[in-house]
Amino acid sequence: MPSKRGVRLAALAVSVATFASACGLGSTDTGTDTSAEGEVKGQITFQTLQLKPTFTEYIDGVIADFEKKHPETDVKWVDIPFEGAQEKITADASAGSLADVVNLNPQFAQALEDKGVFVDMDKAAADVKDAYVPGAWDAFTVAGKPGSFGIPWYLTSEVTMYNKDLFKKAGLDANKPPATFDELLDQGAVLSEKGKGDFYGIHPALENRFITDLAKQGVPIVDEDGETWTFNTPEAVAYLEKLVKAYKGGTYPKDSLTQDHSKETEAYQGGRIGLFPSGPNFLAIIKENAPEIAEATGVGPQITGDQGVTNMSVMGNLIPKTSKNQATALAFTKFLSNAENQLAFSKIVTVLPSTKASLKDTYFTGEGDGSVEAQARRISAEQIAKAENLVPVQYDQRVTAAVIGQVELALKGDLSAKEALDKAVEAANKISAK
Q1: Which of 71, 237, 366, 409 is deepest in the core (most CB within 10 A)?
Q2: DSSP label at 173?
Q3: Using alpha carbons only, what angle is made at residue 36 by residues 34 and 38, rounded to the nearest 5 degrees?
Q4: pLDDT tens-place string over residues 194-239
Q5: Distance between CA 313 and CA 307 in Å, rounded?
Q6: Which of 103, 155, 106, 148 is nearest to 130 (CA)?
Q7: In this structure, are residues 42 and 328 in contact, taking their beta carbons and an 8 Å threshold?
Q8: Alpha carbon distance 247, 257 (integer Å)
């Protein structure tokens, strides 16, 4: 059922987003990337993260089509669970035994690419680079290093889901959801005031949102070399002060400060918050778990700053330099992520393609069946053209924990906004220097 596919990929997106800590590879035999121009034949291994069994039929179909087009090839698909995946991939990289094509997100891949593990796609796949959304292609670059080390596959772009029934109860216009951070906080405050403890405006979900929200407002998160954290600017302080005011004023549920995105999802499904900025893939979860809330849900554009910058999450495929069959690995990666195959995948599950041609299809540009899912699909696709992967690849689990810990202290009143951000930057720089 489509809803189950949506649930599975929603879980996939959340899990991959957390799968981003540094690997500490030490000395690695990175091999070379000079053989990507050879003949397309022989066996390769394609490794994904927990796509079976939900997407087995689709992936098997793409592999069969590729092998039909290239009769002398054999693609072996290996799917590994999230549990233990980081340890396995790190060990394989250290041993020079990574699969020929590896499915990863930029945050996790960067720790490996920093050691020179992957083929530079700016060179190896220059012929297809222009086919992809620029922000998606650029997501696989590393600050201070030339080139890009992955071919984008599928994307997600956040929309703003909101409970129309709660909007009406609060006296807000149910046809005008917020589009900016100020509007989000203003409408969130009205919802909480009118809710009188029965419902609130917003859940903070800080670990998923804080750094991204700063980047959307033009705050420089790291320097140009990607070596020093720089997000303790006056603009960032002013924004955190707004969050402090919102928390003290009751815009957020008091017990939500340290809760993550899963608790935010539960709160929205339970009718306890009126605004839920998240990926449109979560509409399937809401529809399955809380049909009455789904019926009341409207969608609006991604919350952003004055410059209209939007964020995207990216998954891609990378080819290790240690692959002994880079030519076939590259041909398969291009085939898997071409416009036709990405469009087909997007029609199976709520993700966006990274190819420009796919996004021009009426499936994304039209009104579809008029459902909230179709509206979310159109809105998120429109945003992709100017979207970027705003979260620095260095923003791993360790840095996230250090930063959000200080932000929480500011919201509780234990530190000023400036003190919290200064301490957060100091802690992040110490972690990155190790």
Answers
A1: 237
A2: -
A3: 105
A4: 999 999 999 999 999 999 999 999 999 999 888 899 999 999 999 9
A5: 19
A6: 148
A7: yes
A8: 9
For residue 290, give Cα distances in angstroms to 251, 297, 350.
23, 11, 18
139, 147 contact by CB (below 8 A): no
Do the Cβ atoms of 302 and 310 come closer than 8 Å? yes
CA-based nearest residue to 129, from 143, 156, 148: 148
Helix axes 397-411, 417-433, angle to 10 degrees: 170
d(CA 103, CA 71): 24
Tokens of 411: 């919201």
pLDDT at 119 over 80: yes
Going by their DSSP bridges, the two strands 159-163 and 101-104 should be labelled as: unpaired
First to last CA, the chain: 47
Whether residue 313 contacts residue 389, with contact meaning beta carbons closer than 8 Å, is answered with: yes
How far apart are alpha carbons 424 and 411 in whole angstroms? Answer: 14
Q: HSE, CB side, 13 Å, CA atoms: give it for residue 227.
A: 4
- In the chain, the largest separation of any two C-alpha atoms, in whole Å, equals 68
Q: Which residue has the tokens 């959000």?
A: 404
Q: Where are the alpha helices (DSSP H) in 196-276?
A: 206-216, 234-248, 261-269
Helix axis angle, 282-289 relative to 261-269, nearest 10°? Answer: 40
